[in-house]
Write a structure and sequence with these properties.
single chain; about 475 residues; alpha+beta; Porin; two-stranded antiparallel sheet; elongated; coiled coil
Length: about 475
């Protein structure tokens, strides 16, 4: 604005100057007067040139300042765009649950009057971080905080006289990396993932968030046979073709030193050790039609691997200890109806040799080992009705049955039925908002031994899940 005013003033001055010269030339004929007028005009012209020079300098300075401002603005915009682009590639999810349980229990099988034990548990809090590096490269890390503590560690001291297992108790819970995988997926039909990956055996590996199962706690039948939310180090391929989903993996195997009567191979998961032995690898594969996470689906899975070479005291056994597991699962989610089920069947070769080796390995408590099953089986069926389809109340009622028998058969002798368990229950899921679920469940626990009375249980739980 100031520049425009100065230009207008100069224009007026120039016009006046020209008019003055023209008028003077016509009116004055005296040489002295004419000379005086010319001198005056030269002074005014000199002043005009100086003002024009100053105006040009100011214009140039304004152009420089405007260029600097545009450069700074462009830099800020670029930085904001870069930060927004990076943030758009980052993902965060979390889920967790807290539970209250009230169970009848017996000190031993001779008891006829059960006592009741009530417990509270911050069952788990899980955080999931993901980043999409490019269109084809991504990563995901999942960390689980269990029971509100930092956990225990188990170490093997090979320099002890006989080799000892040492347990260090640091707190009541665990902090566990449940997944830490890199993924390369150039197409929907094919991808590769490697690192610490979920093993696709058992529905819990896929449906482990509180809103993905109806019971208060994850299914007891699966936990009595295989590791829950099973994860191993390895590499796998996966993809989706039409409505089919497939996975195939080569992963670290189990360690038979911690196979137990009550949960078959579940305790053989090497997460308790600081280092995972990889002398025995395993294969895991799965094929599903449909998507269990989104609704209706059917699927089969298979696991195969030796376990003896992963033992720290491998000199105590000279057999393979091969684990083979087959699973079949199905889900029907349509309208208000919810139905899910799974059957697991497994075999363990050389179960007697493993039992004997574990009995005589120092530090493996408890020292009094029962049999290990050469065959094991487990199943569950849960059925629910979402009443929100009929009323305004977001409530789902359900019934559930879990069954496990880790001693379906033994290599020699007769299998005890002490660890053949059945849990039947009914309950409700209430969703005050879609991200939160409040659960209640009551049921009956039965052991397939006539001298052990049936017991009752009751559980309350609250869970959440969200994503950014």
């Amino acid at each position: 604005m100031r520049t425009e005013l100065k230009l207008s003033s100069l224009a007026i001055m120039v016009t006046a100057l020209i008019g003055s010269v023209h008028g003077t030339a016509q009116a004055a004929t005296d040489p002295a007067v004419l000379e005086q007028a010319i001198a005056k005009q030269e002074v005014e012209l000199q002043q005009l040139k100086q003002q024009l020079s100053e105006l040009a300098a100011q214009q140039q300075q304004q152009q420089v300042q405007q260029a600097e401002y545009q450069a700074k603005t462009s830099t800020v915009v670029d930085r904001v765009d870069t930060a927004a682009d990076k943030l758009s590639k980052f993902s965060f999810q979390s889920y967790g649950s807290a539970i209250y349980t009230s169970d009848e229990y017996f000190d031993n099988v001779q008891d006829t009057t059960p006592e009741r034990r009530n417990r509270f548990d911050l069952e788990r809090v899980v955080t999931e971080f993901g980043y999409q590096f490019t269109d084809v490269w991504s990563m995901e890390v999942e960390i689980e905080y269990e029971h509100g503590g930092t956990g225990t560690s188990l170490e093997y001291d090979g320099f002890d006289e006989f080799g000892e297992f040492e347990t260090e108790v640091e707190a009541g819970g665990e902090v566990v990396v449940e997944k830490a995988e890199l993924r390369y997926r150039p197409s929907k039909a094919f991808g590769v993932k490697f690192g610490n990956i979920h093993v696709p055996i058992g529905l819990t590996s896929m449906l482990h968030k509180p809103n993905q199962y109806l019971t208060v706690m994850r299914h007891k039948s699966e936990a009595a046979m295989i590791p829950a939310v099973w994860n191993e180090n390895g590499i796998g391929v996966y993809g989706e073709i039409a409505d089919f989903h497939y996975q195939a993996q080569v992963i670290s195997g189990l360690n038979s030193e911690y196979f137990r009567t009550y949960d078959w191979t579940a305790s053989g998961h090497q997460k308790r050790f600081e280092h995972v032995n990889g002398d025995d690898l395993a294969f895991a594969g799965r094929l599903d039609y449909g998507d269990f996470k989104k609704g209706s689906a059917v699927g089969v899975a298979y696991y195969y691997g030796n376990t003896s070479d992963n033992r720290h005291k491998s000199n105590k056994i000279d057999v393979d200890g091969t684990v083979s597991i087959v699973s079949a699962a199905g889900a029907y989610i349509e309208g208000p109806w919810i139905l899910r089920g799974q059957y697991l069947y497994g075999t363990l070769s050389d179960s007697d040799a493993i039992t004997q080796a574990n009995k005589t390995t120092p530090g493996l408590k408890p020292g009094n080992f029962a049999q290990l099953g050469s065959k094991s089986q487990a199943f569950f069926v849960e059925a629910g009705i979402d009443l929100n389809h009929f009323t305004s109340v977001p409530l789902t009622v359900f019934a559930n049955i879990d069954y496990s028998n880790p001693l379906m058969e033994v290599e020699t002798g007769t299998a005890t039925k002490r660890f053949e368990n059945t849990w039947t229950s009914v309950g409700v899921n209430y969703f005050p908002i879609p991200q939160i679920v409040i659960k209640a469940e009551a049921g009956l626990h039965q052991v397939a031994v006539a001298s052990i009375p049936d017991t009752h249980f009751f559980a309350l739980g609250v869970g959440y899940q969200f994503s950014l």
